[in-house]
Amino acid sequence: MKITKICCIGAGYVGGPTMAVIAQKCPHVQVTVVDLNEQRIKDWNDPNTDNIPIYEPGLSEIVAEARGRNLFFSTEVEKAIDEAQIIFISVNTPTKTYGKGKGMAADLKYIELCARQIAKVAKENKIVVEKSTLPVRTAEAIKSILDNTGNGVQFQILSNPEFLAEGTAVADLLNPDRILIGGDITPEGQDAINALVEVYANWVDKDKILTTNVWSSELSKLTANAFLAQRISSINAMSELCEKTGADVTEVAKAIGMDSRIGPKFLKASVGFGGSCFQKDILNLVYIAKSYGLNEVADYWEQVIIINDHQKRRFSSKIVQTLYNTVADKKIAFLGWAFKKDTNDTRESAAIYVADDLINEQAKISVYDPKVSRSKMLNDLDYLQTRSSEENSSSLAIFDNPYEACKGSHAIAILTEWDEFVAYDWQKIYDLMHKPAFLFDGRNILNSKELESIGFIYNGIGS
Ligand code: UDX
Ligand code: UDX
Question: Is 232 a pocket residue for ligand 2 (Cβ < 6 Å)?
Answer without folding.
Answer: yes
